[in-house]
Amino acid sequence: MVAIDFEEEDRPFSWRDYGLEDGLVFVVFWSMAGVVFIQFFTRYVLGSPLGWTEEVARYLLICVGFLAATIGVRKRSHIRIDLVHRYLTPPLTALLVWLVDVGQLVYFITLGWVTWKILPLMGAQKMTSLAMGMDVLYGVVLFSIVVMVLRQAWQVATRHSLRSCRKGSGSDAQGTRP
């Protein structure tokens, strides 16, 4: 039987564990929670829902999703499969991690380019209940993608090199993660 340690020690609080995007996600998330509460209160308590709350809550959820993805890139905590790493040698594992990171960078750049091309077209589209263009929402998405590109490029440049792939000393070569 496997013993579970419920007495995990918490690391002491450090501001270095958080980036600017953490604060931004915090503010947008609680703004969304406030809008959802207003929606609930006006619908079920007052019996007359405000028309704009559902649409705004939906757009804020999209913003939270993309802004939170920047945190995932920074922490290198996006979903991945570690099964293959167990059966490869450290140099091959380091090379595989480097290739995956470069692939992610190419994906983020492509996603940013497509968003940049769509952004001017969305200015003509207006939100249903507010007199704002959809380009505001796409601007937040583009900002998030730019942050992801910069974070991923920094990680590829600082954590990986082809020389470290040959040695097997890439950042995740031994299965460790920051």
Helix content: 55-70%
Number of DSSP strand runs: 0
Could you give the distance between the termini? 30 Å
How many separate domains make up the residues? 1
How would you describe the shape? globular
Helix segment tally: 6
- Give me the strand/helix succession: HHHHHH
Rounded radius of gyration (Å): 21 Å
The residue ranges in which pLDDT falls below 50 over 5 or more consecutive positions are 169-178
The helix-and-strand class reads mainly alpha
Average pLDDT score? 85
Q: Major sheet: size, sense and barrel closure?
A: none
Query: How much strand content do the residues show?
Result: under 5%
Overview of this structure, please?
The chain is mostly helical and 178 residues long. The protein has helices at residues 20-45, 53-75, 83-86, 90-122, 135-159, 162-167. The chain has one domain (20-76, 88-167). It starts with 19 loop residues before the first helix and ends in an 11-residue tail after the last helix. Residues 169-178 have low confidence and may be disordered.
